[in-house]
Amino acid sequence: MKINVTAFLLAATAMLFSIESALAKSTLMDVYLDAVDNDPEIRAEYALYQAQISNQDKTSGNLLPSVVLTGEIARNREDVETGSGATGTSGLTYFDSNLLALTIKQPLYRKDIFSDIDIQQAKTRVAEYEYRNAEHEFIMRIVQRYLAVLASRNELHYLNTEKNAISEQLANTKKRYKAGINTNADLYEAQATFDLAAAQVIVAETNLFDANAALEEVTNKTYVDITDLQHNFKPVYDGPADIAHWIETANDKNPELIASRYRVESLRYELERAGAGHYPKLDLVAKYSNEDTGGRFGESETDDQSISLQLEFPIYEGGKVSAGIRESNSRLNAEQEHFTRTHRLVKREISKAFKSVSSTVNRVNALKQAVKSADAALSAIKSGYKAGSRTSSDVLDAQKELFKARRDHFQEQYKYVVSYLKLKQLAGTLSSDDVKHVTHWFK
What we know:
Layout: H1 5-23, H2 28-38, H3 40-60, E1 66-80, E2 91-110, H4 111-178, H5 184-219, H6 243-253, H7 255-275, E3 281-293, E4 300-312, H8 320-387, H9 392-427, H10 432-439
Antiparallel strand pairs: 1-2, 2-3, 3-4
């Protein structure tokens, strides 16, 4: 049997490439792009935005001419009785009639329509910035779920490491117990510590499963592995150091705040719309009709053409207009108060996020040093245990402190990533470029 070496090498290369691709780690940007294509929540928000655009177009159409074509075909029955001295013949007559009419109506002055258009334009701006806000929340949701997987994965890793260390300590305790060095209390304490560690591992496995499921929910994809922060990652804030800069930026760009402004604007137009009931309506109406009919006087055909101005001036409608004005004014006042609340809330959240970024940097550095100190302490206590000056409980406590310091360190690093993006979200500048930038922090 003759083997085609070239074909074999190509097939082997393709297989290796396929395996390598399957095992390759997915980056934060990869996950984000998958979510863009598959997250139903952000797509639903976009559909609502498009629906409002269509609603605006529909309202604007009320200012354009309306053209109505009417047709009628009828079979008529006419029974005429004439009195003395009347002209014409009496009796029962059947005849056909046909009518074709074209009516064109062009609004000239309609305060209600003008206000409706202004209202819908403002609502479209509200929908636009609500969608932008949804985009920002979408980015934060993806990043937080991505980091939740990493946090759960690392938690499980450290708990397994801790469990293995406790298992070794338990084995040593059993040996020392058999040798008569350790007491029953030492053995029971070591066994209880191991059982608790095993239970914590089970909880961590469940948490990791849930975190992966949450990420899959928005991406519709299962990931073999995802990149974690670089081992030597050191957060350094290099943005504007003046909080006033962030507050000013948020005033101009925060989508939630801008949407609230346009809600106030739309309700101002609603107030105008409510008062439109006191304004006249003026329309230009052009009609053309052709009627072909019979009857006792014989067949006839009539062409009718007209063009007119129709003026409608409201006098009194039972107080509905005045009540509508009061209602709209109250709704406007309520929305203005809501805007004030939103503005203050954004300002407070900006201050909180700005402070969180700087304080997180300091905590990450402090916890990094804490890990080194806990590691050195564990080594010293292990040496003391071998020398007989330390107990197994001292070793286990030192191990727990080390693992806790490591967990706190990586969790604080993840918190910095979230705080950094949260600050940009509140300022209204968050975008996919920030996701690309943050992705470089991972390996």
